[in-house]
Amino acid sequence: MFHLAAGRVGSLAAKRATAALSTSSARMMASHGHEVSTAVDMSKPQYTDSADYPLPDVPYKQVLTDADKSLKQKEKGPWNQLSKEEKLALYRLKFLKTYPEMRHSTPEWKTALGAALFLMGFTGFIVWWQKVYVFPKRPRTFEGDWPEKQLKRMLDMRINPVQGISSKWDYEKGQWK
Amino acid sequence: MSLAKPMMRGMLAKRLRLHLPLAFVVSFSSALAFNLLIAQPRKRAYAEFYKNYDSVKDFNAMREAGIFESVRPIEK
């Protein structure tokens, strides 16, 4: 389970790293949610689904079937002769996702939160190991009656007498207010 | 198929209609809250403390407790 979580975190981190390193948002890979198996030629214009880049450099479908090609021919004529289905087909040739689809939230936050909390919990084990093997002995100011004597000295010195610790001590009765 | 024409311009103005007054309200409320809950009580606490403060009495109490190195507790 930990390996899977680490793998997912790794790929998510890689995606975010590439996005951060890119010069513009247009250089993001069009992601389908799975690993890209073949290398993409990055020297050519890319298709991107990005809310701040409405008209990508290339249409989504660049390899057209004969039906697509005839539809493109029909597109060159008057558009009110196109049916609703044809218009939608033309849209989907040009774009992968609509704006609402682009903006649609993913359940990624659950993975992110889970991984973060898991790693925080794992840090507890690390700190425990450190307590056993790394940390030196606690200062003597924590042992025995030293803290009590320290507090008494602070009260004697009237530390923070207006709103702080000495203001909470009743000097007449010798007890906390 | 006729969709409604999407919003083409005026997004910032639309956002500011809410957020600008809200910003002022939040800022002023925070300042007011800080003043009423922290600043004024603090000023009152200091005024109360120093109203009947006898520094010599306080010094002698500290001296008796034995925290000073320059003066010892008063010998009887």
From TrEMBL, chain A:
Instruction: Give the record's membrane topology.
Output: Single-pass membrane protein
The pathway noted for it is: Energy metabolism; oxidative phosphorylation
Q: Where do transmembrane segments lie in this chain?
A: 109-129
Among Gene3D superfamilies, the record links this protein to: Cytochrome c oxidase subunit IV
Could you mention a single GO BP entry for this protein?
A: mitochondrial electron transport, cytochrome c to oxygen
Q: Name one GO cellular component term.
A: mitochondrial inner membrane
Enumerate the UniProt keywords alphabetically.
Membrane, Mitochondrion, Mitochondrion inner membrane, Transmembrane, Transmembrane helix
List the subcellular locations. Mitochondrion inner membrane
Biological role: Component of the cytochrome c oxidase, the last enzyme in the mitochondrial electron transport chain which drives oxidative phosphorylation.
Q: How does it assemble?
A: Component of the cytochrome c oxidase (complex IV, CIV), a multisubunit enzyme composed of 14 subunits. The complex is composed of a catalytic core of 3 subunits MT-CO1, MT-CO2 and MT-CO3, encoded in the mitochondrial DNA, and 11 supernumerary subunits COX4I, COX5A, COX5B, COX6A, COX6B, COX6C, COX7A, COX7B, COX7C, COX8 and NDUFA4, which are encoded in the nuclear genome.
- Output this protein's name: Cytochrome c oxidase subunit 4
Origin species, per record, is Larimichthys crocea
Automatic annotation (TrEMBL), chain B:
Protein name (record): Uncharacterized protein
